[in-house]
Every structure is written in C-alpha cells, then in structure tokens.
Design a protein that fits this description.
heterodimer; A: 245 residues; alpha/beta; Rossmann fold; 3-stranded antiparallel β-sheet; B: 386 residues; mainly alpha; ABC transporter involved in vitamin B12 uptake, BtuC; two-stranded antiparallel sheet; binds magnesium ion; ABC_TroCD (chain B); transmembrane helix (chain B); membrane (chain B); Zinc ABC transporter permease (chain B)
Amino acid sequence: MSNPIAIKVDDLTVAYNYKPVLWDIDLEIPEGVLMAIVGPNGAGKSTLIKSILGILKPIAGSVSIYGKPYKKQRDLVAYVPQKGSVDWDFPTTALDVVTMGTYGALGWIKRPGQKEKKAALEALEKVGMLPFKGRQISQLSGGQQQRIFLARALVQNASIYFMDEPFQGVDATTEIAIINILKELRKAGKTVVVVHHDLQTVPEYFDWVTFLNVKKIATGAVKDIFNDDNLTKTYGINFKVSVNK
Amino acid sequence: MNNAQVEIQLIASLVAIACAIPGTFLVLRKMAMISDAISHSILPGIVIGFFITQDLNSPILILLAALTGIITVVLVEYIQKTGLVKEDTAIGLVFPILFSIGVIMIAKNANDVHLDIDAVLLGELAFTPFDRLIWFGTDVGPKSLWLIGGILVLTLVLLFAFFKELKVSTFDEGLSASLGFSPILIHYGLMSVSSVTTVGAFEAVGAILVVALMIAPAASAYLLTTNLKKMLLLAVGFGVFSAISGYWLAHTLDASIAGSITTMLGLVFLLVYLFAPSKGVIAVLYREKQQRTEVSLLTFLLHLKNHDELEERHVNHLREHINWQKVRAKSVLDLALKNNMIVINKNIVSLTEKGNTFTTKAIDYIITNKDAQIEDMKDDFFLFRG
Ligand SMILES: Nc1ncnc2c1ncn2[C@@H]1O[C@H](COP(=O)(O)OP(=O)(O)O)[C@@H](O)[C@H]1O
Ligand SMILES: [Mg+2]
C-alpha cells in the first residue's frame, strides 16, 4: 500500500501491576483503512487502543500518529470506549453525551456554546438519533447507546477513529447502520480501527485486519491474511471459518 | 431569633452547600466511602496543625489537615494498586489507623489541646458564634463563618471553571483522557477540594456530619433527577433544608445540633428513597406489578390470537385455561378492555383490530428486539421501557 502510515506502534509492552498483557507489539496502520482488531477475550485489544491514546502508560515502546506523539495529535483522533466502561445511569441526556465530543477542541475551562450544540445535533441526525436527543441515556436501548457513542466520535471530526467493540449488544439494524457510517468514513479518507468479535463478518466489513493475542500475530489486508492459519494461531484452537471470498 | 442563632444557621447552611458540591461528584463516582476515610484520617493533621498554630481556624492548620486527606487517598490507591486487596478493604485499612493516631495524640496531650473526642465526632456548632474574627478592632463575625465562606467561594469558582471537565471525567474516564483532560489531575483536584471542605467543616460539624452532608443530599438528589445541574441544585437545597430544619429540631428538643441535622438528612433521604417518582422504592414496586400485569395481558392476547374456537375464548374458560386467579384474570381483562384491545360479546372475547396489531408488534419486538418500531407503544406500556 502506498498510503502514508497513520499509526505506528514500536516495541510496545504494557503491563498491569507488572504483569505484561501486551508484549513487544510492532504495528503500522496505513491511512484510509477500515481495520478490525481481532483476538480472544483478554487478548489486550482494549489495552492496545488505550496505550495508543495515551490513556495507559506503556513500560516500553512508543506510539506515533502521523509521525508525532499522540499528545500533539489529539485533534486528529476520536475514541469510542467499550460501552460497559461507563455508567449509563449518569444523570445526562443523549445530546449532552454527544456534545462531550466537542470538549477536546474547546480545551480547558471554555464551555460549549451554540456552535457545539449544532454540531452535536447534526451528528445525532447522522446516526438516526435526533428524536432521542433529550432522553436520559439509561432510557436508551443498547443499540441506541452505541449510536450515541458513534455520534460523539463523529462530532470530533477526526482523521482517525478508534472504536472498542461498537457492535456489542446491538441489534442487526443498528449494526448495519454503524458499519455503513464507518464505510463512509473510510471513503472520506479516514482511518478507522475497530475491535471486533464476530469473525464471520470480518471479510464483509473490513479491508484490513490485525490478529492480537498478547503478541501481534499478523497484520495486513484481509484478503491476504484472514485465513484459518492466523485464526488458529490467535485463538489457539483449530479454527475453520468459512470465509466467503 | 437572636444573632447567635442566625449565625449558627448561616454557618450550617454554608457548610451544607460546600459539602453538597464535591459530594455530588463523589456519589456519581461511587466514592462515598472515600469521604468517610478523609473525614476520619484528617484528625492527626488537625492535631499537629493545632500544636503548631494553636488556632483551629488557621489556614495553615487547614492545609496541613487537608494534606492528610490527600495522603489517605494516595495510600488507599497505592494499597489497591498492589492488587492484593479491593478498594473498600484498602479504605478500611487506612483510615482507622490514621484516625486512631489522631485520637492517641489528643489523649496524650489532653492538657495542651482543647479538643476532645466528642467534639471531633459531632463538632461544636453551638459554640461557633463565640469565636469572633476581629479585623482592625471591629468584630466582623464568627471565624468559622469566614472560613467556610472562603472555602465555599473557592469551591464555587472551581465548579464553574471546571464543570465540563468534572462532568466528562466522571462519566467517561477513557474519553476524558483521550481528549487531554487528565482524569488523574481532576481526581486529585476533587480530592483536594473534598479534603479542604472536610477540614473546614470539621470543627463546626464534626467527622460524622461532614460525611452525612457530603453524601446524603447528593444521594437523595440522584434519585430525583436525570440532569447533573439539577442534581447539584437539589443536593444543595436538601443540604440547606436539613441544616436549618435540623437546627430548629435541636432547639425544640434541646439536643445536639449536629445530631439533629444528621437526623434530618436521614429523614430526607428516607422520604426520597420511598417516594421518588421513578427511582423510589414504591415506584419501582408499582412498575414491577404493572410489568407483571402487562406480561399477563400479552399472554392473554396471544392466546386469543391463536384460537378461533369459541369455547377457547369464553370468559370462564379463559380463567381455567390460562390458570389465573380471579383477581388477576379480571384485572387483565379490564386492562385489555380499557385499552380497546378486546371486545366481549355474550361472554365471548375477541381481539379488536387494535389488539391484533398490538399483539403482532409486541411479539415481533420480543423476538427481534428491534426497538425503533415500538417507540409509540412505550408510553402506554412499561414492559418496553428499559
Ligand atoms: N485495569 C486493569 N487492571 C489489571 N488487569 C487488567 C486491567 N484491565 C485489563 N486487565 C487485564 O489485561 C488483559 C487484557 O485486557 P483487555 O485489553 O481488556 O483485553 P480485551 O480487550 O482484548 O478483551 C486481561 O487479562 C485483563 O484481565
Ligand atoms: Mg476489551
């Protein structure tokens, strides 16, 4: 691929309580791909994303976004955490959560105004959630909550999107709606990195894939490396996925 | 009311407001226990501060004691990080030790320190008007009033400046970090404000009431609203209400002011807990009962839909067949009738057009869980909420 490298990870090792959960990861993600990160539970997929975003401090290695550290490139990156990582009983509305996507551009102290609200409403519209803007977030279904999170990332108007299991607990309609938006982002030249669980849909949804299980098993184009061999190496058991090519 | 009475109520109210603000965020962050830890473990800080300054209202004492609060938080997090014990265990380990160090220091120096354990636990609100601040020869009011007023102003300034940062880091730590609002910085900022407020309020209201004033109003407010700003306002309102009504309760009963305020806080929480419109115990029980009836209704409608035979749709047969008790069967029949889902003709029940559509939609929903289509049904049926 001749595209520039959007994200580069060098010799990354990350540990919790001195127990490494990511070992010596090297990874280059080219600009403009829609990439799945696959691997079993506890493989370190969330940890990898959090380390790229500077949320976790690695014990070794480095990460760069278009050649510069993440700290300098925050404006270019949007992040959708795992749905279960937040408390959906928090007293706030759908619109308010989406507006949080504008906070980064505002910086410290400055409050969101009309411009930010308008951007948030547009993002809500894009994910089909405008009618629910005033609803308390615990009153939304799992799929609707996931759409809200997507809208919050869209409002950031970034070049690179990281999404941790955006299809978790969503119905089929929402899954299609979300993947269509992600494909649109790719069409617009954005880079999208998605932690994904459903191996069956990888070839259909993504063009790039990274296999991860504590170590990086493989990374590259889906058509080249999404095969039983890599799946077996990643999941440890003999894998036979019927990949319809 | 005399001057001292007004001053006591004013101090109690300001303490309540200053506590309710950090308290709201502690409750939302599920950190109520940490305020308990801080309120106890600042004791050695206060005693040492008192040795140095000989003045309970000295800013140096406040800072020293607040520092003990922060140290507690750091210690708890350190112990927790080793992964050997859970957070509540870590809290339970740290604060009794620091608190007892404070108690021993007071006991050993009883002659020099005008502090006693009763005052530590319950404060001396009644005496606060007697310690006056004299400025250039004029009496400008009780020292406590100035102290807690200053802390409150500081808290308000920080709240207004960092409201957005507090909100995002409380709701979604990961997003907050990725946007560059360090959750650790905000966490320690909140812990510092909580510690300073606790120390400032401690002399007036004691260790127990500080915790109650931080947690109870926020916990009550949480049950009543789905809006963070309203939650803050409600928490402040409950705090002030309990402070003033508690004062008069104490006045009437000739009892401890701090104890009476705590009683009022408990009472307010109890009432809200029982009667809150959507999250209260009674509302929840009622909703569960409704849901049970609605599931029955759906079973009943489905039965009608599946059977054309007249004998299957006879009122009496339904009772036997679906195996419901009389009352249950009647309430389900009534509900279906009221919603125009069925018609009863000579004791034979039939689905109406509306009932038919509803049943199809509802079954469809339960099977596919596609939520978008049943939006308009949500208002009528609890079953599809949440
Ligand atoms: N905060 C944490 N403290 C300690 N261990 C953690 C923490 N978060 C994750 N882990 C451990 O790190 C490993 C990788 O976790 P994670 O990145 O969440 O995996 P994945 O997202 O692939 O399921 C798991 O073994 C998990 O138990
Ligand atoms: Mg994960």
